[in-house]
Amino acid sequence: MAEHLIEGGPNAPEENKINPMLKFALELGPLVVFFFANSRGPWLAERFPALAELGGPLFIATGLFMVATVVALSVSWALTRTLPVMPLVSGFFVIVFGTLTIWLQNETFIKMKPTIVNALFGAILLGGLLFGRSLLGYVFNQAFKLNDAGWRKLTLRWGLFFLAMALVNEIVWRNFSTDFWAGFKVWATMPITMVFMLCQIPLLQRHATEPLFGDGGTKK
After folding, report:
1. In terms of Cα–Cα distance, which of 20, 60, 24, 22 is closest to 39?
2. Cβ-proximal residues to 43 (8 Å cutoff; 6+ apart), any chain
3. Distance between CA 94 and CA 91 in Å, rounded?
4. Could you say which DSSP state residue 7 is in?
5. For residue range 15-51, what is the model confidence (pLDDT) as tens digits?
6. pLDDT single digits (tens) 91-103
7. Which of 189, 58, 46 is closest to 117 using CA atoms?
């Protein structure tokens, strides 16, 4: 059976699926590792002297963040024989900006990574709409099925959301401490994203082509 490196797009033929909660855990896991390593940097350096060679807490966190990202993508590949598009793109920037952060001992690179990634995602999603393509289907197609109008509306909303989050990251890292930024990155960014996702449920229900949450979604 032919296998594709990248996960299929919206309404693509059936492929190996991963449990949505496990997929969420794989995407959140590296962020939790990053926060823990940043907050417990001295403790980790004391117990694992090799980590101390990376630098201060943020540099240790960055190194472990890179490793956790690679592990999460590897697990996803092992389970589905495909790689999720957006975590793959984000992972690429984690490796690039993480390497620059540690090599140059400059925190700016890893702090700017969320800005660049979110801005890139927003530009890609909104740019795709200009060419008539609802690219968000590549991300959520395994979780639910929508008609074309639903994918377009959801893609527009997520595109604008990503641009807003890019702006928020710029404000936070430029005006607050590193510890505050690291905490915000994990404990504020994720809840904000979850609230945004919950706000999309009415749209999903209107445009679902298969039962959504077992409640019989309808087409519009």
Report:
1. 60
2. none
3. 5
4. P
5. 556 676 777 778 778 888 988 898 888 899 998 999 9
6. 888 999 999 999 9
7. 189
